[in-house]
Amino acid sequence: MTPVPPVPLRKAVIPAAGMGTRFLPATKATPKEMLPVVDKPAIQYVVEEAVAAGLTDVLMVTGRNKRALEDHFDRNQELERLLRAKGDHGRLEKVRATNDLAALHYVRQGEPKGLGHAVLCAAPHVGDEPFAVLLGDDLIDPRDPLLARMAEVQGEHGGSVIALMEVDPAQIHLYGCAAVDLTKDADVVQVTSLVEKPQPGTAPSDLAVIGRYVLSPAVFDVLRDTPPGRGGEIQLTDALQRLLSDGDEQIHAVVFKGRRYDTGDRGDYLRAIVRLACEREDLGEEFRTWLHRYVTESMPKSP
Q: Would the keyword Transferase turn up in this protein's UniProt record (predicted)?
């Protein structure tokens, strides 16, 4: 019997319904996904990452007051005419680039019931094929193609693939956490169990689940029967653990050692901006010079 070839990965789901309360008052009227990271909103980095990995269809799961996300990726003909008339072709190209990144779709998550529920909202659009989930709080440096590697692993093994990253054991209780077995590939492990935000001292490892997933459509049936977990929300980690417990599918993970920028925390958001600005060809040299002078000359000296 000829083996059935794996279904290619084409669709991405980006949950974007959160209120962004940690960034109030900035997010009172502006979606947190639209907060700028240097000169692009955070959400644009995420969409560009999906496109760079070969995905062509992107579904954003949004909520109230998220219209700015749709506007950002839509045509703004008045702005384009203005830039064209001024001869500002550089900015015109940047504005146009957001229009045709991918086929973009939107669905509303009516209630804030957690990440698992947000993923479940994508079921009618995704259908019966594997799909990626990208969380906007985690920005992955484009020089470290994590999602492309995850797609490769899913094509080889099937099932689902998650991304893991080593964290300080004192911080592991803030994350989903995985117990794993090694495989023949140094950067790939097989997941044997998952727990969402384990109690301090009970974590099975220091490998934290970060915001990239390549999921089998089988997860939808499990999510429909997954009760609320930590925080009273439907947790995606709980659904993946159910898949493991039932023995229906394997879950592998890529252990990521590259550059990740956490924009979900105010301090880490600021550090992400500084790191990315320092590495920009058009900004980096001047910004690094100023930053060095500010740190060495302007900061108050410790007694």
A: yes
